[in-house]
Write a structure and sequence with these properties.
six-stranded mixed sheet; six-stranded antiparallel β-barrel; Elongation Factor Tu (Ef-tu), domain 3
Length: about 170
Amino acid sequence: MQKEACFYLGKIVSKFSFKGEVLVKLDTDTPEIYQEMESVFVEYNKNLVPFFIEKARLHKSDLLRVKFEDVDTEEDADDLMKAALYLPLDLLPELADDQFYFHEIIGYQVEDLAKGKIGKITAINDTTAQALFEIDYNGKQILIPMNDSFIHKLDKDSQLLIVDTPEGLIDLYL
């Protein structure tokens, strides 16, 4: 499985027991839907390797306590520490029409209510305190905070995001 065909589910953050159980920090607003998984892809030595799950259950809201098949000791679990977990894109839960996954809107055109056409979304920067739309405007990069109050309309059929940014924000980049 290629990473491009998957979404990031979370990261193994610690061991839970001497029997090989681990805790996974999930990157989701709905961790409860991932308790019934049969398998996941674990990034191991820069490859996605399928791991089958014996049991999984929530542990303190956003942590998932997982027991993988054939991971039976602390040493086995040590080998998986800090590994990222992935699932195929087709397992993403359906979203409402006004919601989106970051990977879905790459390539969408962006229009501002006041400025008109701005450009195309090239990436989402989620390494900052607030996620940012990275938009290409004739070779210049425009950054717009991913703030619900700035998003006026999302048209998935037309691949168009209409924003209503504060006065002067876009002018900072032009």
